[in-house]
Amino acid sequence: MRAPGTLDPLLPLVVVVPLLVAALLAALSALISQHRRVLDLVAIATSVAVSAMLVVLMARTAGGVAVYWFAGLHPRHGAAIGIDFAAGSLSCGLAALTAVLVTASMVFSWRYFETASTWFHSLMLVFLAGMVGFCLTGDIFDLFVWFEVMGVAAYALTAFRVEEKGPLQGAYNFAITNSVGAYLSLLGIGLIYARTGALNMAQIGRALGHGRPGSLVVVAFVLVLVGLITKGAIVPFHFWLADAHAVAPTPVCVLFSGVMVELGLYGVARVYWSVFGAGLGHRSAITAAFLALGILTALVGAFFSYRQRHLKRMLAFSTISHAGLFLVGFALLTPLGLAGAAAYVIGHGLVKAALFLCVGAVLHRLGSVDESRLHGRGRALKTTGVVFTLAALGLADLPPFATYLGAGWVGDSASSHGAPYVTAVVMISSILVGGAVLRVAGGVFYGLGDPPREDPRLRQGATEERSETSGDEAKVPLTMTLPPLVLVAAAAAIGLLPHLGSVLQHAALQVEDEAGYVKTVLGGAAVHHLSALSPKEPTAVRAIDLESGFGTAAGALLLALGGLYYRRLPGLKRLRPARVVADTFDRLQSGVVNDYLTWLVFGVACIGGALAFSLR
Amino acid sequence: MRPERRLLFFVAAAAGFAAFLVWGLTGLPAFGHYRGPYGYLIDRLTVHYTHATGLVSAVNFFFRGFDTVGEEFILFVAATGLATVMRGLREEENEVSGGEAVSAGVSVPRTSDGVRTLALLLTGPTLLIGWWLTTHAQTDPSGGFQGGAVMATAVVLIYLAGEYLKLRRADPIVVTDSVEAVGAAGFAIVGLFGLVAGGTYLAEVLPLGKHIGAVNAGGTIPLISLCVGVEVMAAFLLVVSEFLGQTLVLKGALDS
Description:
The structure holds 2 protein chains of 2 kinds. Chain A is mostly helical. Chain A is built from 25 helices and 2 strands. Chain A has one domain (10-456, 465-615). Chain B has one domain. Chain B is globular and about 65 Å long.
């Protein structure tokens, strides 16, 4: 523990170091672009160093939120004059997860890209810095700045391989949709500044205080929310995600699905608890609205995921489904709900990253991401097959993967707060998503069952992926099998950590302790007793959590086998899901950005209308 | 969605959105009734903290300097990303044309003497204004963002006066890339000086100058402004060069 008043120099360094290295690599590009391995090593070393610093910070902030005032501009008379980082252990932990996944995907890229210019490394490092800054900041405008840094880096990384038409279109949809969301967020920040004359989150939170929020606060909240839930892929703001994932290089998808989407939702929790919560009065209307959005997202994502034949799109929709579940965890407004979401984010981030890396290895070796064309062709990729299957089981909440704890805690907290149906939603969506991915595991890597029918939409896209990598390597190199293996092992190991629940719940309580946060940031005082709206709940692993975890995984396995063998079962041969309905839904994902923006405006109008009538 | 249906759907949704937004705007303070406190605080404290009279730059480069580090990197990544995409496209075009740069065979009409004379006449003054803006962040409402953009304009005027293709042969792009990165790194490094010498990142480490509002006042503000100016100029040039190059490729494709 540091004495109060001293500023921890690691806090700025975790953002500044990757930025500086990115700029220096670009500045020296003429000299070092011929030495590919030097670039790789410098970039990997940087992200390893950032991960290590963040782990240290995570330990240091367990005792209290660490505040860093840039340029030493401490607040005067309780009003902030500069920018602060205000990081608790949840923020630092999420940032550490980000840095670990960046490291894994850069190790994977070692052999994945035949040629990689300096740009790739510079963009990845700036992307990392943006995400870390977004996690740590305590200032709402600064939050927006880092949000944009990670956004712009992500657009560029999506379009990184531009020899084909696909990447440009995907990046275009991604950039337009997310930029519109971000502008609405900025408009919301402007409104709240006009009301409070402050940009520091703690200061705004204090100024809005308690009582009736008034129209401006409700509108500002919804507008700020739009940018964040667009990034967080919440229905109906989610359309860009599958398009971007389908075309982005696989190592980049690891970061989009593993952390970027989750950061959007972290932003929702952060902005809610530090800025708007007290002003909006924590009414049940908030819980109801976010529960509805979360459940809709979880089910829609899971449904689409099961219908995909394109592996990257399948994983992308599974991310949407999980994003819905994370939002449900936040919506309960309880420490255990948020802790559950955090455990879920960690577990999901690690296994999803592993799944994407395995798909990358498949693409590298076999040159396709089409489930039907790949059927049975993955037998030779033994390690990759095993890791993919384990990760798929992790995605289906199998104990001891950390995902089952997340699912369990979110369900537990929901049950004790009058929403017992949440457990069912979590199980159904995890079964659908896990079933889809396990179907791929069985079909592609073990040749079980019948290949699914070819998806006509995939035929034209089949060559699209070629540009990433040559697709006929003799052997999957170690740099492509080791990272996913380590990630899956980590997901299981974290699920076995003793006290994980109480540590996470403590971290969640730091986020939800609004009064303590204001005192720490503006008063410079250490807060020893955290208190939040809703008390802590027991986190011991209960039999029912294990049962529902095993139950979900078993359900997913059955669904996967059903998907592989249904044509051989006499009665089921004709049993097809209502094709017409399904096709109608498929058409919503049109790839036309005008449609996506129309949905976005529609979404804002719906959420805005609902909250306007219930909070007014 | 079919376009007509989408239009109907959009109009309905946008009407709901507009109503919601207007409802929120009614909660704004009346025009001219700024409540503070942030603006008032900055107003009072700027001279005390920085000896600078360029208030906007003091906010950009000192009070909210860390935001500006981020913004500078947004520009860096945007320009870099654009260059990556455009170069990818151009390589593709080159492959189509059999390895030869398409631009080699393009007939670009000669720039008229009137345009060239005017561009030459304007180059000097434009460069001077840009330089003045970049180096006077501490005294007046100016700074590296504006100055960099104006300085880039001066270089574009040179492109216009000479022939772009001839200048391009000298390949300024590699140099532009590096200069842009150096500018971006510069600001972040000035911040590190603060961490090492002043205790916190971006802390003031240079003397503030005796006279308030003098050119040598403002501590690190002029230095940061210069870095930003260099970065912005290089980023703009990079973008302009890439677009010009792209235009030539497209022209070449049309000609052949």
